## 1
Amino acid sequence: MMMTKFVVVGGGIVGLAVAHRLMTDRPGDSVTVLEKESGWGAHQTGHNSGVVHAGVYYQPGSLKAALCVAGNASMFQFCEEHGLPYDICGKLIVATDEAELPRLHGLHQRSLANGLPVRLVSGEEARAYEPHVSAVAALHVASTGIVDFGAVCRKLAELLVAGGAEPKADTEVTGVTTRTGGVVVHTTRGEVAGDVLINCAGLHADRIARLSGITTPVQIVPFRGEYYELIPRRRDLVRGLIYPVPDPQFPFLGVHLTRMIDDTVHAGPNAVLAAAREGYSWGRINPRDVWDELTYRGLWALGRKHYRYGLTEVARSLSKKRFAASLARLVPELTSVDIVPAGAGVRAQAIRRDGGLVDDFLIVEADRQVHVLNAPSPAATSSLEIARHIVSRLPADQAC
Ligand SMILES: Cc1cc2nc3c(=O)[nH]c(=O)nc-3n(C[C@H](O)[C@H](O)[C@H](O)COP(=O)(O)OP(=O)(O)OC[C@H]3O[C@@H](n4cnc5c(N)ncnc54)[C@H](O)[C@@H]3O)c2cc1C
């Protein structure tokens, strides 16, 4: 059997996990990772909440449900094996009034269908977990936890180097030429020839797919998620993870309170349309990205359907008081003087031409190519299992 050369685009947690799985499962093959930034996990992976989700929210039978539930276990196991910090602290999803109870019960049923260790608890029982929470009832999810996904990326990159793979930072992919039996990837540091291309470029994955000759059924639209942080003397208001009951129409979970692995407590993220794929603040505008958004029929269709939700999110983004008011629904003692801005992340959310938000992970396979076109939350949690899924579906030998 000949050696197959794999070229992975993107050194976020998904690309690194795929490269690591290739290296482990196909020791005779070669693996190169191309990452445009100088460090690993510089975009979505390095700007997220650090939560290892359990699998509560996802449609039973979906890729998200299967790979999140399995990914939760494999992420904690990876951290244990490699001495990385983690804490399976559990989380509470709280119904703050009676009107939210049917949706909370719906989540309970869905969690059970996904095989999770969850418990529906009264408001009083909820306060045994989180003494400052306001809840008429809550769902306690025991298997949710926290990690440092940046540290996971650095460990994966270290393992790749040790195992003989080639993770190349500061190498931006600018073009792809497909040829019989493989691809030539053009980068800012020269050409890389490969037998198989695996595109894990996150916020730019649809563009890499198009450069590779794929007609994508979706476009990636960037939604910024902004965070505040609790000032140190108010951190004791939150022990672990406190989430609201989400609106099932959207893939976003609603602003929540998250104790991070470094013991800070983050509040957020919200979800506002960004004017750049790497638009971490209102001031970051990228004309090409704005043009792509404005000329995309799918975004206009989404806007027509959900403009009220969008305007509410913008108002909350611009007003610290409104942001604090959302938090106070969960923990009434919190006010706007208790929080300070704490950065943002940008989600790569794929949207269909009819304006539908792609709910499940979307992985498109073509001849000698695999494109990860929708890997928003919980893809960091699920990354090791997304990698296993992708690698298990590759033909045994693709060398030319
Ligand atoms: C605010 C926020 C909160 C979140 N919270 C959670 C959470 O708590 N738990 C969870 O499981 N998930 C969470 N997520 C989702 C999670 O972060 C992502 O699903 C996951 O990080 C996706 O990983 P990725 O490798 O696909 O993308 P990325 O981490 O974005 O990596 C893609 C990489 O590709 C590189 N790249 C792009 N274009 C090129 C090019 N042309 N050439 C070379 N390299 C290129 C980029 O520089 C980047 O490093 C959150 C996301 C956000 C934004």
## 2
Amino acid sequence: MIASTRHVHVLGALGRLAATGGWARVMDGKPLEAALDLVDAELLVAAGVLEVGRVGDGTFVPTDLHACYADPTALADAVTCELQQALRQVRGTDEVGRDEIRARGSASAAAATALVEGVVPMLASAHGALVGGRGEFLDVGVGAGVVSATLCRTWPGARAVGIDVLPEALALARDEAARCAVAERVELRLQSVADLDDVDRFDLAWLPQVFVPRVDLDRGIAAVHRALRPGGWLVMPVASVSDDDSELDRAAVRHDAALKGGGLVDDADVRGVLAGVGFTVERTLCGVDQTVFLARRPG
Ligand SMILES: C[S@@+](CC[C@H](N)C(=O)[O-])C[C@H]1O[C@@H](n2cnc3c(N)ncnc32)[C@H](O)[C@@H]1O
């Protein structure tokens, strides 16, 4: 995270450029011409997000590379999520609206791609089952359904169960599954992970900790362990801070995790809960503001 993107005007400029075509022009090396695009770009240069390209020709280039930069829609949605979350806080409401769930879904597209292309191929038993067309996937916090739909589209024959505590999310997930022509392979349930009662069923489970309140997480991890087949895998991104982060960044990650519902949980605590229910943590991957735990139910 570039620290200046915590500034509301900087986020606004980034989101507007992404939503209205200017960001796509930047990424394609084309000059910006519209007056408002140039005003946004000037602010992003001052903020250290962009730098001026070949002097005087109106082109700009990002100073840094981020996965979401390549997809302006996902970038606009990620910015929208941040702003909507902040607005909810100002208004003192916990209620997550349809627009925010949809924006979160689009912002999860990068995570879905990383899961199917980068992470699952490392998990031999789950990968084999999914590629073989017999794999079953558990999507905890299905939201707008992007992760389940991406997975089912990638592996024909794979099936997903998506659970969420918000009826609004399930309606969006149903639309997304239909849009991707995988509706008959995606089962959706209004259910908390804490109440999951499947046994020995899934080859792979996805559980993003930052959205799940702690009281549900501990019971949920035990329920997911029971729900996986022996040898099945849990992929669990966990919000985390590093000693290299500035104090502001660490505080912002903690604040964001609290607003999303799951709060910040330290690595040793996560390892303790996973081991306590019988998972073996085989590997961890470090991402921006999160650590991804790859844990296995022993075969
Ligand atoms: C931001 S969404 C994840 C985005 C999603 N991957 C997508 O493709 O849209 C996280 C979801 O977790 C859900 N959630 C929170 N607590 C939960 C719980 N205890 N059990 C199941 N889902 C939960 C939230 O309602 C929210 O919709």
